[in-house]
Amino acid sequence: MFRITLPLIILLLFLSPAFAEVTKEDLREMEQRIKEYIDLKINRLEESVDLKMSKLEDSTNNRIRILETKMEERDKRLTAEIEMVKWMVGTLIVIIVAILAIPQAVTLLREHRELREVVELRERVTVLEKQLSTGTSP
Prior knowledge:
The protein has helices at 2-15, 24-134.
């Protein structure tokens, strides 16, 4: 019991000034100090938040610039690759058309030449028949 009583008595001795009366002036002074302390803390917090927001904005803007640069590079590469694919498709179409059209063109030219020869031979036959029927020699 003595262990509890002695610390309690010492505590009461130290707290005795706390039981003194507080005047209105003392309350106003404490209130003013508390307001100043709170205002100081609020200002420090606002400055800290502003600084952190500024750093965050700078970091975000840098990241955006980096991403925009990467996107532009990829866009250029993709555009170049698309142009290459277009060129290859065009070349392939020309080759396919050539493979299909050249044999047909050769066949048409050959048929046209043979037709001309047939027409020339008919004309000669017609001339020769006329000469035979009239009895004149060429």
